């Protein structure tokens, strides 16, 4: 099924998203904000209100620049990736999986990293904003294209970037490995900006992360800022994020970096810049959750809290993604993730309601199959899908990168994790 040209997905209230900027509550980021009504914090997804586009924004970060327009929503395949079961928008679970009552995220998924089995999900293909969990794509591209030992001298633009920063200093040289460490442990937008320069600049990096998303089978993802700052048309889904983190946690280098509890960011004696230590901000690790391997945190006012977590027990490696959740009248995102992972480990092996390897139908975008630890697939070439129609999905995002480059850093005043 295609989205009509110029279609703006209706919000849960039935109003076009672009006219609903004040409808959703803003997540407080400090004690000076009034606590929003709990009734406004839980979204009813049963009628699939976010099939085409994310919930209405609550600030001006997605207002196009003068003379520009927001890109049309991505098309929705006839049959979604994962199969027909993944078209449901409420909780989908097998008889053995028990969804914890405290999970309030609008969208989530629990999956087996090795086999691709989906154990349970909620609105898995609903379109939501990723916030900083999308940094996984930037990391994957950097790991593919850059030598870990290669260094780059930090610029003022790197150090002064908006949002969460590790604290790299202008004039100091940092290795790719150090920048990736800061990106994954502390969600450093400064590290992400430096890596983007090494990858050819922001425009080139945006093209590369979108191409990587398409290569991994994504149908709901379009990125205009690879650090996760909100931008017009930027979106993803829990299912797509599962594809990305499955690939990431099958990469030994990513696995090692994501699981670090502490790391050192080097300084420069000549510039009188001291070394300093950083700690992983993923509390799934620091909490002592059994088998925790790492993951990623995320937050913007529009995306609300997002989270990815992966753990392994007895050779079974499970992951979970949460999108669009809050910390009001609910546990922290990592605690919700911990509950979902516990339910996953309590579910018998080879119990599945869908598979990450099942491609969408009604989408002609070439897909490259996943080559993970438990798969015996033929890597000779890209995989094609059936029932093709003009590819205006991920390609739309890449095609409009140039004209939207000016808006990818407009989310002023937001925190990132």
From TrEMBL:
Keyword Nucleotidyltransferase: no
One Pfam family this sequence matches: Peptidase_S11
Positions contributing to substrate binding: 296
Record's compositionally biased regions (Basic and acidic residues): 30-45
Peptidase S11 D-alanyl-D-alanine carboxypeptidase A N-terminal domain residues: 99-325
Region Disordered: start-end pairs: 1-74, 364-384
One function term, GO molecular function aspect: serine-type D-Ala-D-Ala carboxypeptidase activity
Keyword list, A-Z: Cell shape, Cell wall biogenesis/degradation, Hydrolase, Membrane, Peptidoglycan synthesis, Signal, Transmembrane, Transmembrane helix
Active site: 132, 135, 187
InterPro entries: Beta-lactam/transpept-like, Peptidase_S11, Peptidase_S11_N
Highest rank taxon of the organism: Bacteria
Gene3D superfamilies per UniProt: DD-peptidase/beta-lactamase superfamily
GO biological process entries: cell wall organization; peptidoglycan biosynthetic process; proteolysis; regulation of cell shape
Transmembrane segments: 389-412
Family in the record: Belongs to the peptidase S11 family.
Record protein name field: Penicillin-binding protein
Species this chain originates from: Corynebacterium lactis RW2-5
Organism lineage: Bacteria, Bacillati, Actinomycetota, Actinomycetes, Mycobacteriales
